[in-house]
C-alpha cells in the first residue's frame, strides 16, 4: 500500500496479515515523493485530534519515477554456467558440427562442388550466416527460449543441406554407373 506521510512523501509498505487485519506485518520498502502529470486535488491527511493536513503533489509524472527508472529496477537474472554451456552447445556447436561433417564427407565432396554455382552453395552459405546470427544473439544475452526458433531454423537449413547434398551425390553415382538419372527433389 501507499501510506502518505506528513512531510509530503509516500511510504511504500507491504502489509502481510490475515482477513481480520489484526496485527499485520509491515515491511517498509521505501519513502519517495510522488509526482503527477496533471493537477491533482489537495490530499487531506488526518493528523490526529480531528485536524487535517492538505498536501499538494508536484505536477510532473503520474507514476513514481523511481519505480520506472533503470537505477531502481532489479538486476536481470543471470543463467547458470551449466545452462550457458548447454545453450551454447545446442545453439552453436551441434549445427556447426553437422555442417563440418557435411563439408568433410568424401561421399558428398562439398569442397569440390562448392566452386560450382548450385543450390548447395546457396544453402551452405545461408547456414553459415544463420550460425553467425545464432552466435551474435547468444552472446548478446538473449534468453534461451527466445533462441529456440533460431535453433529450429538452423537445424532445418542444416538438414536441407544434407538432404540436397545426398540427392546430388546419389544422382552423380547413378550417372557414373550408367543408369538413367532419376529426378530428385
Verbal overview:
This protein is an alpha+beta fold. It folds into 2 domains: 2-68, no CATH class; 81-177. 47% of the residues lie in helices and 16% in strands. The protein has 5 helices and 5 strands; from the N terminus they run βββββααααα. It has helices at 65-68, 81-104, 110-113, 119-139, 144-177; strands spanning 2-4, 10-16, 25-32, 43-48, 51-55. The strands form 2 sheets. Strands 1-2-3 form a 3-stranded antiparallel β-sheet, with no helix packed on it. Helix 2 runs antiparallel to helix 4, helix 2 runs parallel beside helix 5 (144-177) and helix 4 (119-139) packs antiparallel against helix 5. It is rod-shaped and about 110 Å long. The termini are far apart. Mean pLDDT is 60; it is low at 36-40 and 57-76.
Number of domains: 2
Number of helices: 5
Structure classification: alpha+beta
Could you say which overall geometry the principal axes of the C-alpha atoms support? rod-shaped
What's the pLDDT, averaged over the residues?
A: 60
Uncertain runs are 36-40, 57-76
Quick one: how many beta strands? Answer: 5
| Rg on CA atoms, Å | 32 Å
Helix share, percent:
40-55%
Instruction: Provide the succession of SSEs.
Output: EEEEEHHHHH
Biggest β-sheet description: 3 strands, antiparallel
Beta-strand content: 15-25%
Q: Reading side by side through the largest sheet, how are the strands ordered?
A: 1-2-3
Distance between the termini: 66 Å
Amino acid at each position: 500500500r501507499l501510506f502518505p506521510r506528513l512531510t509530503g512523501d509516500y511510504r511504500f509498505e507491504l502489509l502481510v496479515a490475515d482477513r481480520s487485519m489484526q496485527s499485520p506485518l509491515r515491511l517498509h520498502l521505501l519513502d519517495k515523493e510522488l509526482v503527477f502529470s496533471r493537477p491533482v486535488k489537495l490530499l487531506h491527511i488526518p493528523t490526529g485530534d480531528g485536524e487535517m493536513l492538505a498536501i499538494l503533489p508536484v505536477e510532473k509524472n503520474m507514476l513514481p519515477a523511481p519505480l520506472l527508472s533503470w537505477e531502481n529496477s532489479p538486476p536481470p537474472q543471470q543463467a547458470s554456467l551449466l545452462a550457458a554451456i548447454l545453450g551454447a552447445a545446442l545453439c552453436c556447436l551441434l549445427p556447426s558440427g553437422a555442417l563440418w561433417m557435411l563439408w568433410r564427407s568424401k561421399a558428398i565432396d562439398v569442397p569440390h562442388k562448392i566452386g560450382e554455382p548450385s543450390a548447395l552453395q546457396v544453402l551452405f552459405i545461408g547456414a553459415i550466416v544463420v550460425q553467425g546470427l545464432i552466435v551474435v544473439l547468444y552472446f548478446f544475452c538473449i534468453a534461451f527460449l527466445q533462441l529456440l526458433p533460431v535453433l529450429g531454423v538452423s537445424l532445418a537449413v542444416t538438414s536441407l543441406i544434407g538432404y540436397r547434398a545426398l540427392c546430388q551425390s546419389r544422382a552423380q553415382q547413378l550417372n557414373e554407373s550408367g543408369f538413367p538419372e532419376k529426378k530428385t527433389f
